[in-house]
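Annex B. Sample input.
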Amino acid sequence: MHAPVVLQVVATPVSPALVIRPWRLEDVTAMVEVGRDPALRRWGSSVVDNEAEGARWVQDQQRGWAAGDRFGFAVLQARPGPVGAQLVGGIALKDVSSGTPAAEVGYWTAANARGRGVAPRALEALTGWAFATFAADGLERLELLHQVDNLASCRVARKSRYAFESVLPAAPPCFPRDGHLHIRRRCT
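Annex B, continued. Sample output.
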């Protein structure tokens, strides 16, 4: 079992600071609101329609942490003062298993945060954490999959140094179109 962690991404001159932490039930309302975005519904596999679905989804994420095989994080834009942080995305490390050399990463970005470097910065933080945390368990590479026509995800993969590996055939219903496989290997 792995204790939940919080990853911090410092602000840049053009991008706000990010807080990347495990999902909480208090995130459900914002998640339902963000999930109304048509682009997120097109590309996402974990969009929720209401608070009850959202609560079940967050509990599933918490079970993944407890089992040690899936680590889902809310990506929040840090804000000073009483307003608090704003949900701007989600990111996950999936299919983690001791002795298995590969795991998968996935992410999404809220409509109001796209084009501001949120996904690549969050992915870089998750990648570093994953390799530092699971190298001793044999983790050597991270795999990133997206549909071939999701050009934004392809740009995020390239910016985050995930090399294009191959085209994958469609696997409906979860992967209805052909996809790209990108890989990032652990530096030794």
